[in-house]
Amino acid sequence: MYDEEHQKTLCYKINLPFLTPQDFKNGIKLAARDLLVNGLKSIWQLNKYRGDVRGKALRRRQFDSNSNLRGVSRNARIGSQYKWRDGVVPYVLSRDYSASERAIIARAMQAYHEKTCIKFVARTHEPDYLYIKKEDGCFSDVGRTGGRQTVSLDDGCIYYRTIIHELMHAIGFWHEHERPDRDDFVDVIWYNIRAGAHSQFQKVSPSESNTFGERYDYRSIMHYDSKSFSKNGRDTMVAREPGMTSVMGKSDDFSPSDLRRLNALYNCHGRPNSRPVPPPSPIIRPLVRPPVIDDEDDDYDGAPFSIRPSPPRPPIRLNLKIPFLDLICTDMWKDCYKWAAMCRTSVLEVPMRFVCARTCGHC
């Protein structure tokens, strides 16, 4: 039987499979320099990385042949059956992340909690959930696809704006430059796109997306930059509006339009605790690399939308029980009393149950 002090020591050495109050506290303390990266090569420029939407081409082919297949986008950036119920997104976090990485992830999730009605909550028994892990680059499916759904945030992806971008995919949003009306606002320079990346510039059909009446947004966090996937260092996309080419893909946070669409998709303003979208603010040239990543399962063979499907993965259940945590009823974190009000909140109820059992009355 572990004594209380030994139990606490073991607990602090474990990276729990969810974010704790301490992670969110650490995230709040992060300075801008901890969230952004300056002067590094963009991820999309590395030959290893392609796009960050997993299985995109396959889903489009399925849409053409059978519009009822699961995993196919329909409208509002994803059909209502692919939205997360009530905006609640269960997740499991890999234990491979360091304390500083967990803090950045927490900071990004907190931005959703503060600006939208989306809530990322530690998974208990939900069959559909995000599994956030270091797999191979940065990528996500679009919307809720069912079962365990990987969001890969590898070592080169742990930046605030990259996490915001990938989670927005998981919530149900395509890239801005994939809008059906893209060609009215952007010219794609196909010749400058490197081999194997042309599918990253295909438009989503009108039946797959809903812009909610929002004008094309060059400042969207979901927009690629002008040289994405360039084979020769020249622009692959040029804005039709003067001065906007240099703006595309340079945002380091949600744009006002991103928030309006996200809140419209989940009817956030019809719920309590939703917050008004802030007015537009001047764009600041970002210090981060664009969130573009590995889609090695998208085997481009020269024809649009060509992909080799992976075998389906059955939903799995993760047992969150940690053997020694329930041996002694105690608080594992010295500041539990400061977070007592969080014991029954949807976002932190499960973490608080483990690390602040006594304070939260779970004994």
From TrEMBL:
<dbReference type="GO" id="GO:0006508">
    <property type="term" value="P:proteolysis"/>
</dbReference>
<feature type="binding site">
    <location>
        <position position="169"/>
    </location>
    <ligand>
        <name>Zn(2+)</name>
    </ligand>
</feature>
<dbReference type="InterPro" id="IPR006026">
    <property type="entry name" value="Peptidase_Metallo"/>
</dbReference>
<keyword id="KW-0732">Signal</keyword>
<feature type="binding site">
    <location>
        <position position="175"/>
    </location>
    <ligand>
        <name>Zn(2+)</name>
    </ligand>
</feature>
<keyword id="KW-0862">Zinc</keyword>
<dbReference type="GO" id="GO:0004222">
    <property type="term" value="F:metalloendopeptidase activity"/>
</dbReference>
<feature type="active site">
    <location>
        <position position="166"/>
    </location>
</feature>
<protein>
    <recommendedName>
        <fullName>Metalloendopeptidase</fullName>
        <ecNumber>3.4.24.-</ecNumber>
    </recommendedName>
</protein>
<dbReference type="InterPro" id="IPR003582">
    <property type="entry name" value="ShKT_dom"/>
</dbReference>
<dbReference type="InterPro" id="IPR034035">
    <property type="entry name" value="Astacin-like_dom"/>
</dbReference>
<dbReference type="Pfam" id="PF01400">
    <property type="entry name" value="Astacin"/>
</dbReference>
<keyword id="KW-0482">Metalloprotease</keyword>
<dbReference type="Pfam" id="PF01549">
    <property type="entry name" value="ShK"/>
</dbReference>
<dbReference type="InterPro" id="IPR001506">
    <property type="entry name" value="Peptidase_M12A"/>
</dbReference>
<keyword id="KW-0645">Protease</keyword>
<dbReference type="InterPro" id="IPR024079">
    <property type="entry name" value="MetalloPept_cat_dom_sf"/>
</dbReference>
<keyword id="KW-0479">Metal-binding</keyword>
<dbReference type="GO" id="GO:0008270">
    <property type="term" value="F:zinc ion binding"/>
</dbReference>
<keyword id="KW-0378">Hydrolase</keyword>
<comment type="function">
    <text>Metalloprotease.</text>
</comment>
<feature type="domain" description="Peptidase M12A">
    <location>
        <begin position="75"/>
        <end position="269"/>
    </location>
</feature>
<keyword id="KW-1015">Disulfide bond</keyword>
<feature type="binding site">
    <location>
        <position position="165"/>
    </location>
    <ligand>
        <name>Zn(2+)</name>
    </ligand>
</feature>
<keyword id="KW-0865">Zymogen</keyword>
<keyword id="KW-0325">Glycoprotein</keyword>
